[in-house]
Design brief:
The chain has a domain of 154 residues: ComB-like (putative 2-phosphosulfolactate phosphatase, Alpha-Beta Complex). The longest helix is centred in the last third of the chain and has 14 residues. Strands 1-6-2-5-9-10 form a six-stranded mixed β-sheet, with helices on both faces. A two-stranded parallel sheet has the order 3-4. The chain has a two-stranded antiparallel sheet with strand order 7-8. The protein has 231 residues and is an alpha/beta fold.
Length: 231
């Protein structure tokens, strides 16, 4: 046991794939949060009955089409609003997908959390057992280094707040950030670095979807290589 394990606290919080691997050794359940955009895309797709397969990065983004021939789909949550039930969607991302795969390989139960399903995923995580770890995915700079992402801090804080318990100082800091932004989430997401990047690429509609808090009861669980609704 090391200080990085955050012993004595539940829930706990860390960042990126490296943090996920550390906490997966001591926490049976990990909630991965990548608000812009992987876990938001997963929530939207799974809510419509699709199955989302995370792919390692670099990789193809959402090449799969459903039996109906619809698609293709992408990390854009808006692109998944009309995905038919039963569609297999493959999504590669350097952040959320990579963190999810790392956590699963480390042996943890992996849930996909975002602002949209924060309370639902927290309740499910509690039922699965603890201690629970929340992993903010963050972003990767071109040189591969981690850029902590405020949107993931806020999403993680929303999940931690709903989890209750005795959060670690790291987890408490995320809750404080969420509470500070909760009254104006759309503006905060639009104004942060990741939000500005998406808006510049014409993806402002994704920001509006991602900023919605507790509008979903969907709990995507990674099992058998893909995310589907927790049964």
């Amino acid at each position: 046991m090391t200080p990085e394990d955050q012993p004595g606290f539940d829930p706990r919080l860390s960042w990126a794939a490296e943090g996920a691997v550390v906490l997966a050794q001591v926490c049976p359940v990990l909630v991965v949060v990548d608000v812009l955009r992987f876990t938001t895309a997963v929530e939207v797709a799974v809510a419509r009955g699709a199955r989302v397969v995370p792919l390692p990065w670099p990789g193809r983004e959402a090449p799969a089409r459903g039996a109906s021939g619809s698609g293709p789909y992408s990390l854009s949550p808006v692109s998944l609003l009309d995905v038919p039930a039963g569609t297999r969607v493959e999504l590669a991302s350097p952040n959320g997908a990579t963190v999810s795969l790392a956590a699963a390989r480390a042996g943890a139960v992996v849930l996909a959390g975002c602002l949209r399903n924060a309370s639902a995923v927290a309740a499910a995580a509690r039922e699965l057992g603890g201690p629970v770890a929340v992993v903010a995915a963050g972003e990767r700079r071109p040189d591969g280094s981690l850029r902590p992402a405020v949107e993931d801090l806020l999403g993680a804080g929303a999940v931690v707040r709903a989890l209750g318990g005795t959060p670690s100082p790291e987890a408490r800091a995320a809750v404080a950030a969420f509470l500070d932004a909760a009254a104006d989430l759309p503006a905060v997401l639009a104004g942060c670095v990741s939000g500005r990047e998406l808006a510049a690429r014409g993806r402002a509609a994704d920001l509006r979807l991602a900023a919605e808090h507790d509008v979903s009861r969907v709990v995507p669980r990674l099992a058998g290589g893909g995310f589907a609704q927790l049964s």
